[in-house]
Design a protein that fits this description.
CATH topology: Alpha-D-Glucose-1,6-Bisphosphate, Chain A, domain 4
Pfam family, one: Polyketide_cyc2
Strand content: 35-45%
CATH architecture: 2-Layer Sandwich
Number of domains: 1
Organism: Actinomadura luzonensis
Protein name: SRPBCC family protein
Mean pLDDT: 92
Radius of gyration: 15 Å
InterPro entries: Polyketide_cyclase/dehydratase, START-like_dom_sf
């Protein structure tokens, strides 16, 4: 059970990457995240853990399982026996623009049930997060204060 969304961002890839990986600041610009707290003293990278709180959902602890600096990171959590994988990719698009792809994949025996219960909200949240990231990066690129 997977969902992904892609948005074009009118800002340099470096700015988009920096904003995307500064996960503790996500609540400042997206309404779908109320709190992100890093659980370790380690820098954000493979092995880093973060507790993410979102409206209408229990807090989840995410583990970064893959990271390509400047390009992508993947983190995973387990809820109700379902492994949830969040993908975050920053690409240089046609003509030098920046594109972001955000994705959620659920796997495990109960993944279809979880998808039925939370699928619409998950799709809405992922789209909102992509659009919110786009807005934040474009505002920063134009020189507006954070």
């Amino acid at each position: 059970m997977s969902f992904s969304t892609r948005v074009a961002v009118g800002a340099p890839a470096e700015l988009v990457w920096r904003t995307l990986t500064d996960v503790t600041r996500w609540p400042e610009f997206t309404p779908t995240v109320t709190s992100v707290r890093l659980l370790d003293d380690e820098p954000f990278g493979v092995g880093a853990r973060a507790r993410v709180e979102q409206p209408g959902m229990p807090p989840l602890d995410w583990l970064v399982t893959a990271l390509t600096p400047g390009r992508s990171f993947v983190w995973e959590t387990v809820a109700a026996g379902v492994t949830i994988t969040g993908g975050h990719v920053v690409e240089t698009g046609a003509g030098g623009g920046t594109e972001v792809v955000l994705s959620i994949t659920r796997s495990g025996l109960l993944a279809p049930v979880l998808a039925l219960l939370t699928g619409a909200r998950t799709r809405r949240y992922v789209r909102t997060e992509a659009v919110s990231l786009k807005r934040r990066c474009e505002e920063q690129h134009r020189g507006r204060p954070e």
